[in-house]
């Protein structure tokens, strides 16, 4: 079936701050490498793994739609299933964006309401059937051989044979790599290895109270600044925003503790009109997104080009790349009419 | 002279996304460690190194002031001096924020205007006396012994004796560290070492055209997303935003190429009313800021706590920290009345 491409997300946000000017000849940019990928290197995202969050229109009356891709197994599946349950029960509808903390997170959910009779702040009742997850589920064990022994001394990406995903040097773990389109950190101990998804820009996590609480999925946040990697292994990551990120990242910052809006700023809270799983929508209204396979030849070339920019603007290749500075290419597509 | 503290910037943006709840007992947070620093560990920033950029009021009529700290020697001093010349000549007054690219940069300067007679887009004439800098000035040579030989294998911060600044593992260089309150990357070659300032959130750089152009300082940008470290050594960094960052990071994103506002979005461009060096302002109107010495005991303890959070929200210490996730504490102060 023939596809028409619509938009490129993620990677489009990483071109250079040059002024408008004709470019001299140069090597292909990371975007150009991605755009030349063979169609079979793109993987369609299942409708069950796409959430469509519709915010109230902005002050100018413009629609604001955010699309979230949910994380696949083996990670965070209990929380992910809770999120589907919350969406199907329409629990998110009518909740609010309550917190915008600069260079950190945007958080949305139930702000609670003051009951005049009880005088208490009461929470919106949750639907039945939500799972309670354990802290151990923030990480997963992996085979030790997944980890490259020499990556620590090497900050250029190590591209492995057989087009496995590249391995990157990491400031928080033994190394970092990709699997099935998602970024992970790998930590090797003498007798075992752990693997966990990382808090890159646009990743979506589950707000929680103090341990042992692990959160239900009713309270969600996304990263709007430099990757707060210290949250890795301390909170469940459940997905990432693949479209409409600017509707959250450009919201006014809250002046309360942790960036929560104060009572005086209540009018700044952005209403969430609805959250739907794409599979709940009529065929014609479902968003269609695909990601570039992280185990393919093109992604390996893209990661190397991200670490060593040779397109015209650049004069010194970096010689390395942070896992969160190699965003997995995700793009929207639509089926051509009559095909 | 006695000081009254006003606001904490930078580090305040890195607390956890927990819901409001009483905290259980725990080890001190990075912020608590910083707040307990001895007064003599705080270094006052010279008025010559502070730029006050006043934006037009927002839609609600609220004032928007941004304070930029300029970078000290030995880095980028040619561009920094150009920026002082541009500010003293009032060149920046009346320029605009022309570009807002999500997870990348906000850029301001002269958008150029279309001359109806010539039919050309003409640039605002620059003042005389601006220096032309060389690409070599993006980096500096450093003594080889500055670099720890074992940092590559160790991702926990290496705190050096005599309270030198901690050394961090880095995905872009042999290591990363701090000096005089600024973050740097260090790259060791067999026969030499290079050092350069890094593109962390809030750092301010000089827009340029294609090489060999290095920019004058008339076109500036700041980072509003994950650190675009691939720009290190490719563009001059001249400072960082230490107050009012939210006035830039929350601006609406541009829909044109590279996030520039299109002609149809011209009304979204934020006017820059004035840019003044603090030393140009009357004594009583000068902003007063100080940074925590990066060579002191408190900063070493702060960096270690950033890498291994033990305050109540956290259950697993990260065991490492990215240089841009250890923001140098900067705070405003004022002199107490009558002292």
Briefly say what this structure is.
The structure is a homodimer of 339-residue chains. By secondary structure, chain A is mainly β. Chain A has helices at 30-35, 77-88, 246-249, 297-307, and strands spanning 3-9, 42-44, 50-55, 64-70, 96-100, 105-109, 113-114, 121-122, 140-141, 167-168, 175-179, 182-188, 193-197, 203-206, 220-223, 237-243, 270-277, 289-292, 330-335.
Structural description of this entry:
2 copies of one chain form a homodimer. Chain A is mostly beta strands and 339 residues long. Chain A has a domain at 49-119 and 128-284: Beta Barrel (Cyclophilin). Chain A has 4 helices and 19 strands. The radius of gyration of chain A is 21 Å and the shape is globular. Chain A starts with a strand and ends with a strand.
Question: What would you report as the Rg of chain A, rounded to the nearest angstrom?
Answer: 21 Å
Strand order of the largest sheet of chain A: 3-4-16-14-15-6-5-17
Q: Shape of chain A from CA axes?
A: globular
Largest interface: A-B, 82 and 82 residues
Which class of the domain at 49-119 and 128-284 in chain A in CATH terms? Mainly Beta
The averaged pLDDT of chain A comes out at: 89
Described by its quaternary structure, the protein is homodimer
How would you spell out the order of helices and strands of chain A? EHEEEHEEEEEEEEEEEEHEEHE
Question: How far apart are the termini of chain A?
Answer: 6 Å
């Amino acid at each position: 079936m023939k596809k028409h491409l619509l938009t490129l997300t993620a990677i489009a946000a990483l071109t250079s701050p040059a002024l408008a000017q004709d470019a001299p000849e140069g090597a292909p940019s990371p975007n150009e490498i991605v755009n030349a990928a063979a169609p079979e290197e793109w993987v369609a995202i299942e409708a069950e793994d796409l959430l469509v969050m519709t915010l109230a229109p902005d002050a100018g009356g413009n629609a604001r739609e955010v699309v979230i891709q949910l994380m696949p197994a083996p990670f965070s599946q209990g929380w992910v299933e809770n999120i589907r349950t919350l969406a199907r029960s329409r629990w998110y509808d009518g909740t609010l964006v309550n917190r915008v903390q600069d260079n950190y997170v945007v958080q949305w959910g139930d702000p609670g309401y003051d009951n005049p009779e009880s005088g208490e702040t009461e929470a919106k009742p949750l639907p039945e059937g939500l799972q309670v997850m354990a802290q151990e589920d923030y990480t997963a064990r992996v085979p030790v051989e997944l980890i490259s022994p020499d990556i620590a001394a090497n900050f250029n990406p190590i591209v492995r044979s057989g087009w496995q995903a590249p391995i990157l040097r990491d400031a928080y773990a033994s190394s970092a790599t990709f699997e099935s389109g998602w970024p992970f950190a790998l930590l090797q101990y003498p007798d075992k290895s752990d693997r966990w998804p990382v808090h890159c820009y646009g990743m979506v996590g589950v707000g929680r109270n103090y341990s042992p609480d692990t959160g239900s999925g009713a309270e969600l946040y996304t990263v709007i600044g430099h990757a707060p990697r210290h949250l890795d292994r301390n909170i469940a990551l459940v997905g990432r925003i693949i479209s409409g990120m600017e509707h959250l990242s450009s919201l006014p910052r809250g002046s309360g503790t942790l960036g929560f809006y104060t009572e005086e700023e209540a009018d700044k809270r952005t209403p969430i009109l609805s959250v739907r799983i794409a599979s709940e929508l009529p065929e014609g209204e479902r968003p269609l997104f695909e990601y570039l396979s992280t185990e393919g030849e093109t992604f390996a070339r893209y990661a190397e080009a991200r670490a060593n920019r040779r397109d015209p603007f650049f004069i010194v290749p970096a010689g390395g790349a942070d896992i969160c500075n190699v965003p997995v290419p995700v793009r929207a597509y639509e089926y051509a009419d009559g095909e």
